[in-house]
Amino acid sequence: MKIVIIGAGEIGYDLASVLSQEKHDVTVLDRDPECLDNVSENLDVLVCEGNATSAKDLVSAGVKDADILIAVTSIDEVNMIASMMSKRLGAEKVIARVRSDELSRPNAPLKPTDLGIDVIIHPELSAAYEIVRLIKRASANDLITLADGKMQMIGLRIGKQSPLVGKTLHEYAHENPDITFRVVAISRKGLTIIPNGKVSIQALDHIFILAKTKTIPEVVKTTGKPDIEISRVMIAGGTAIGAMIARILSKEEKDWNIKLIEPDFEIAQELAKEFKDVLVLNGNPTDPDLLATEGITDTDAFISVTDDEESNIISCLMAKHLEVTKTVALVSKSDYIPLSQTIGLDAAINKKSAASNEIHRHVRGGRVISVTALQGIKAEVIELQAAPKSKVTKNPISKLNLPEGCVIGGILSNGSSYIATGESQIQAKDRVIIFCLPEAIDKVTSLFK
How do the domains of the chain map onto residue ranges? Predict the structure, then answer.
């Protein structure tokens, strides 16, 4: 496919990297020559220097013949104008990153389609919901909801005292016959393993387990981790994400005790006017005295989502030192994510990944229902629908000759979900959850067509 990406920032670069590896014809348009130099030096894509709101520059970038145009600059207005002009110039499908939720509100005077946008992406909102899910499941380092909420994949760090240390996956499953689950990936010392039953679990492994949503608490218990109930939350940063997290939690029926710390007085004042059930504080979230005064030692979860990722990491480390049960930091550099748990953080969230996952699903299209890149591990979770007479419907899973580096984890069939085994038979229109390394994605996707 011919794909034009507007914006050579972090999200644009990440998308260009992945899409070029998948052999798409990618062009990146940006007005910053330094950003374009970085793209051209490291990626096999075309670059075009120009203004995203100029029809002439958009034509030069090839939007007339584009199968997909992706507008991901840091400015909402530029993305919206570029989308509208590109659609009129002939771009077949337009995806735009828009931070504001103005266009997606029910009573909005303008709809995304009025601006030529087919798909609108809210990375901040995606990140906020991801953080909320992690807070609700205190023991998890990663949590992904799949199959319309019927299944979840949970990422857990195996402690040195865990009863699973030294056991093979066969032994793990045999000792828990009443729970249906599957270990689908392991991150070990920076290496990604798509395991079979003979692989042994080691201390400090980061394991990813797929199970039905209702059985996740039982699965967590098998690892030796307590599934702690969280109700007292402290949020550092009144940013868009921080405000969204407070908004989401305060609207729930559960009685959350929420404190939000914002260093800017005017922003803190505005947030205090909006939230009735949230205590908004004006101060520096990296100030140990302020954190101690406001009762961080009695807090269950500490979330740092300021615009300064170093401050987020430092404040979370302070919180962890003060024995806060759960800490979550927002980071912008994806390289920090695999290091986060090594240095003591429970979880790190990257909003760039949230946006890239959503956009990637629309780029792949076809039978692809969802695509999610796992944080800190070189594997992806793909949800695919089996086409009638496709190769995956011909034989049981054990005889499908799946490409190396992938495993089928779960199946959603006629509204029922179950964990896949070698004897499972995929039927037409079934939704199948697959875990695989990036190099195996195209091969496994072709089996579902």
Answer: 2-121, 154-222, 232-353, 379-446
342: nearest Cα among 228, 205, 202: 205
Following DSSP, what letter does each residue of 196-265 receive, concatenated? -TTPBP-TT-EEEEEEEGGGHHHHHHHTT-------EEEEE--SHHHHHHHHHHHTSSS--EEEEEESSH
**Which fold, 2-121?**
Rossmann fold (3.40.50)
Cα(121)–Cα(71) distance, integer angstroms = 10
Q: Which architecture does CATH list for 232-353? A: 3-Layer(aba) Sandwich (3.40)
Q: Which residues contact 390 (CB under 8 A, 6 or more apart)?
A: 428, 447, 448, 449
Per-residue pLDDT reduced to its tens digit, 180-234: 899 988 888 778 888 888 999 999 888 999 999 889 889 999 998 876 788 999 9
pLDDT beyond 60 at 366? no
Residue 342 has pLDDT above 70, yes or no: no
What's the rounded Cα separation, in Å, for the pair 372 and 395?
27
CA dihedral (433, 435, 440, 441) positive or negative: positive
